[in-house]
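Hello,

Following up on my earlier ticket. Below are the two sequence lines again, exactly as submitted.
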Amino acid sequence: GQNIDQPTEMTATEGAIVQINCTYQTSGFNGLFWYQQHAGEAPTFLSYNVLDGLEEKGRFSSFLSRSKGYSYLLLKELQMKDSASYLCAVRAPDTGGFKTIFGAGTRLFVKA
Amino acid sequence: DGGITQSPKYLFRKEGQNVTLSCEQNLNHDAMYWYRQDPGQGLRLIYYSQIVNDFQKGDIAEGYSVSREKKESFPLTVTSAQKNPTAFYLCASIPRGPGGELFFGEGSRLTVL
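Thanks for your patience. The regenerated structure is below:
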């Protein structure tokens, strides 16, 4: 089966660093994605990992270990506007092509 | 500018009525997807299409139907057979192939009274 797990909620302080973990079990793997979603809005793309290791993009970094089925999203220098849901997603082959499977999301609260 | 347009943004319907949500893209993407999101939940795949005149069921296809007559368009019909249709519906597209991130429309919020 296909399964993506991530914590339901996290709270962190403005200016701090937070790490959001994601574990996955999928039939096939063509990349792992992190999206940010503010309430009532569509998700926006943050990062993409297809090979093991760390990808850095400004205040956001994402790590992947394919052998462990594990990824994390690291947010540095947290700002109040980072309060949002963070969705871990895996792209995998399917009978009809490729599909992207999402975890339930981690709701991050940034407090002053 | 290129993008994905979903309409309507908000929709209210009575129970037992069929509803069609529009999704149009001008990104020249081959693959298009429909997801459903319930409050506090992630995205669940309803249907997807890799090419014109072909589509595949996702994880929660029951009570929904789609068509793909044109590359740019992938409308979703929520039928009366869908037991709990009130949700946020997201359409997305991507170039055909294994990689790449999804491009999302702004979503359609359906409320069934």
